[in-house]
Design goal:
- The strands form two sheets. A two-stranded antiparallel sheet has the order 1-2.
- The protein has four helices and four strands.
- Strand 1 and strand 2 form a beta hairpin.
- The protein is an alpha+beta fold.
- It folds into two domains: 55 residues, no CATH class; 94 residues, no CATH class.
């Protein structure tokens, strides 16, 4: 890199009991080293995390059928499930641990529940097991569900 105009960005991440220091060296222009780190590198890492969640937690990389149309339809369903879980996570309180929960945690704790469903004339009533610890969170998410339709 001799003679080039490279920028270096440094960030420190605290992982108790030590600090994890990261360095990025780049030739990209258009801002300070900090803005390049925050606007390019961090966003790239977040995109990789979304891809990893789609593959790992929704098994979206499983295309085991011999027919291409069946595999394409399976990927379409996985994309819908990804959108649904991401939207559900965005409906939860901003400062809760649910807002950053991984998809498998959301699936197991909020979606995969044994409930009794009672259909009434004007509403649907859900009866959760008494041991369900996340009833308040689930109720809040259901109350905000109409925001997805708008």
């Amino acid at each position: 890199m001799c003679g080039s105009s490279a920028k270096a960005a440094r960030s420190a991440v605290l992982h108790w009991p030590r600090v994890d220091t990261r360095f990025i060296v780049t030739r990209l222009g258009g801002g300070s080293a900090r803005s390049i780190y925050q606007n390019i590198s961090c966003q790239r890492g977040q995109a990789e995390n979304h891809s990893k969640a789609w593959k790992r937690h929704l098994a979206a990389d499983r295309t085991s059928c011999s027919k291409a149309t069946a595999n394409q339809f399976r990927l379409f369903l996985h994309a819908g499930a990804y959108w649904l879980l991401r939207s559900l996570r965005s409906l939860l309180p901003r400062r809760s641990s649910w807002r950053v929960a991984q998809f498998d945690t959301l699936r197991v704790r909020l979606i995969k529940l044994a409930t009794r469903v009672v259909e009434l004339k004007s509403k649907i009533r859900l009866h959760f097991p008494t041991g369900t610890s996340d009833q308040a969170t689930f109720g809040l998410a259901l109350g905000r569900l109409a925001r997805l339709i708008r």
